[in-house]
């Protein structure tokens, strides 16, 4: 009876991860398409965004290990929140209104 629970947990994690991957896969191409549709003069930005997303995802995988080893896994959630807050404040004060 106890052998079945790890199998159920693995199956649930597999299918939930698959659903999550489909959602993320749909989000990445949607962002440059939205930029291109809204601002035709920003074609270069729309072309650079997928490259930045790919590079950021690759770097995130590499630096996650040292962050967990040096601090703890909790910082994998705190650091993005702090950096996103700083980026929002920077954008609020330095990006002109359109």
User: Which shape, going by the Cα principal axes?
Assistant: extended
Distance linking N and C termini: 62 Å
Q: What is the residue-averaged pLDDT? A: 80
Please describe the biggest sheet, giving its number of strands, its sense, and whether it closes into a barrel.
none
What amount of the residues lies in strands?
under 5%
What is the C-alpha radius of gyration, as a whole number of Å? Answer: 19 Å
List the helices and strands and how they pair.
Elements: H1 4-38, H2 43-70, H3 75-94
Helix pairs in contact: 1-2
Can you walk through the features of this model?
The protein is mostly helical and 98 residues long. The protein has helices spanning 4-38, 43-70, 75-94. Helix 1 runs antiparallel to helix 2. The chain is extended. The mean pLDDT is 80.
Task: Write a brief structural summary.
By secondary structure, the protein is an all-alpha fold. Helix content is 85%, strand content 0%.
Comma- or semicolon-separated keywords:
98 residues, mainly alpha, 3 helices, 85% helix, extended
């Amino acid at each position: 009876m106890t052998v079945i629970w790890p199998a159920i947990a693995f199956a649930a994690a597999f299918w939930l991860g698959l659903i999550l991957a489909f959602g993320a896969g749909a989000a990445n191409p949607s962002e440059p398409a939205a930029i291109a549709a809204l601002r035709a003069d920003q074609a270069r930005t729309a072309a650079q965004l997928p490259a930045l997303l790919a590079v950021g995802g690759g770097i995130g995988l590499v630096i996650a290990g040292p962050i967990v080893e040096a601090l703890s896994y909790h910082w994998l959630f705190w650091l993005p929140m702090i950096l996103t807050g700083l980026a929002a404040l920077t954008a609020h004060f330095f990006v002109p209104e359109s």
